[in-house]
User: Fold this.
Amino acid sequence: MKATALDPDGPVKGHVKFGSLLTQIWKNRMVYTLLLPGLIWLLLFAYLPMGGLSLAFKDYKANLGIWGSPWAGFENFKYVFRDPAFIDALWRTLYINIIKLVIQFPFPILLALMLNELRMRRTKKIFQTVFTFPHFLSWIIVSGVVINVLAYDGLVNSALALLGLPTINFLGSEEMFVPMLLLTDIWKSTGWGAIIYLAAISGIDQDQYESAQIDGASRMQQMFRITLPNILPTVTIMFILSVGGLMSSGFDQIFNLANAATKNVSEVLDVYIYRITFQSSTDFSFSTAVSLFRSLINMILLLLADRVAKMLGGDGLFR
Assistant:
């Protein structure tokens, strides 16, 4: 029978459950002690700063602080959607990130499959190290290398001049900016992303491969009939997370590779937020409203991708 407010067993059962929870926590206190630093970090740096999001609904005054500034309701959001530069940055962000999602997403999967097919362990480790290393380079270093190679007096144009061919304005061309983003991001992130899929591949039961070999399956057939189906849940999760980040376009990469000549194709939402916050008349309420809108759209896209994955019969992030 369901406990009611007048049921004496209700509070007793709740007390028993709470006591049982405390008993389990005390029983596993060493595990919870290990979790404590991470939970404290999450609270201090992920949840407490959310209080600053109230700036999106306030008319921020520096002398009054966040909590003392007067409330403005949705006025900041009205100004956001009236700004043509915001609309342009919004569509540009979606355009660049959808292209990245379609073209770039399969590369870590393909690299993981190819590395898995290498039977020489030493060679496999060498290749994995080489492909993973670019991830640890900052975009400042990567952009410096790109600029030195593709500038007017850089390596490529110098070679073209020696051959008597016309030079190419790689860095100042609006048409070449997005392909440059794709190529540099693929080079930098593919090896690191492949680690997740290699970990998923390592968890596949080897008996499946042995059975397939007995049945005469080729290496290619094993890849498509065993390896890919087994890592499909991991691929689905990574795809959902990628969709959930469509509104965040990699500020470091674009900020370091963009210049005045490519301003019309490089101002995505992250760069727009940076510009209105630090390069124009400072309005923290306005920039917070843009950031909050971006986060809400990312959350909606994440939930939609999760729902679509479940409708198609795959695994999602949430049960």
About this structure: The chain has 16 helices and no strands. The mean pLDDT is 85. Residues 284-311 form the longest helix (28 residues). Residues 36 and 42 are 10 Å apart (CA to CA).
